[in-house]
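Workshop exercise sheet. Pairs work together: one partner reads the sequence aloud, the other fills in the structure field after running the prediction. Swap roles for the next sheet.
Pair: D.N. / O.F.
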Amino acid sequence: MTVPDGVKQGLLALGLEDDIPLPQVFDFEEVTESLGDGDPVDEVVRALVELLADGKIVVSHGHWSEEPVYVTREKARDLLLDKRRYSYSSEEAFGLDRVYYVNIENIQPGFRPY
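Structure field:
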């Protein structure tokens, strides 16, 4: 199932600002105003996976107090599909590193981690 373009555009706009922690996307109207009636996490997961497949975002992870490290596309997809990653409380409860995404246009021209 394809995600509405508004969700993807909101995620891309937000990703131009910085490396965005996955749970933070639900704090921004640019994303939430376009979500449908289903599970918002499911919709955001699908949107981010589609953006990753289209080469529009890159994903990194690491402890919140450290500089995140970019991951391979395969690892990025696995991280994006893990719904625990969309909650700050899950990080603490499960001892998870924080996962971030960024719009590829926010990175130096020509950068391609995959």
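Discussion prompt: Helices lie at 5-14, 29-32, 40-53, 73-81, 88-94. What would you look at next?
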